[in-house]
Amino acid sequence: MSAPSIITKRSLFVPQPELSDGTFQLLRSFIYEQTGIYFQDNKKYLLEGRIGKRLQVLGMKNFEDYCHLVKFGLQKDEERKFLYDAITIKETCFFRNPAQLEALEHKLIAEILEARRVNGRAKIRVWSAGSSSGEEAYTLAMIYLEKLKPRFPGLDIEIMGTDISLLILDTARKGIYRENSVRNMPKYYLDKYIICQDSRYCIRDEVKRLVRFEYLNLYDQTGMRLMRNFDLIFCCNVLIYFDTKSKIQVVSNLYDSMSRGGYLFIGYAETLHGISKAFKVINFPKTVTYVKE
Ligand SMILES: C[S@@+](CC[C@H](N)C(=O)[O-])C[C@H]1O[C@@H](n2cnc3c(N)ncnc32)[C@H](O)[C@@H]1O
Description:
Elements: H1 9-12, H2 21-35, H3 44-58, H4 63-72, H5 76-87, H6 98-119, E1 123-129, H7 135-148, E2 156-163, H8 166-174, E3 176-177, H9 187-193, E4 194-197, E5 200-203, H10 205-208, E6 211-215, H11 221-225, E7 230-235, H12 244-257, E8 258-266, E9 280-284, E10 287-291
Parallel strand pairs: 1-2, 1-7, 2-6, 7-8
Antiparallel strand pairs: 3-5, 4-5, 8-10, 9-10
Helix pairs in contact: 2-4, 3-5, 4-5
């Protein structure tokens, strides 16, 4: 009779598969072609760690099978959602860049309204491109409710948030956050527009109903062509993940998506220097904005 097998902690340990240089190149090229996001050689460990976790969930033993699954598998469309979610960085918070909001409140809103008056359009179109979990888009909705609506009750607004990660868009639509998201939020806005319950921070309905969230890959030319006539685009902390070629493509598409007289904001650490000469640059204290003239 054979001895009963003893399952030890050691025998349960499943070593994580290794991402070979060849498969790293294949995955990196695929991700780049699909999303514009480029992983430098020194970021191999990031892909290995993040996709490695997905391999464990799927019970897959190697990266080669995973690469085949996302490129050719029957479930490839479904799996790409998880891949895009795994590879993107979604750090964000409410009122992330106060200098941009000040520029908007003190000068740009008046100019956008004047342009709308000249064009005879009573609606402002705003887009948070690469919205992550929605804090940026909801911040803009709060600014509208606070600064614009009381002065111009007839003025309509449409605010869109888009992202490549479907999972993060679910969070955005729910509008329920943790403390980390509200860390920069002025108390006045927190008290007025957020309901705090059991350490969860819920967006009030009056804010929520102003914002619509949709899937959009900023690197997808077809999808980008549908985005037109925006007066204000916030594409902050997204371009940093692209190489120069994909930045040029995405920024050129953003330009086409804007109305004349519209403004583009990018992240604090980002610049359009060497990427586009199409915009007029306007400097504000601690921030710049790019105008489509
Ligand atoms: C760091 S977050 C920035 C969130 C917000 N804009 C802010 O500044 O706080 C970057 C977001 O860009 C999204 N992203 C990255 N590549 C993208 C692409 N090709 N198309 C659409 N969204 C993308 C990521 O999923 C992520 O949610």
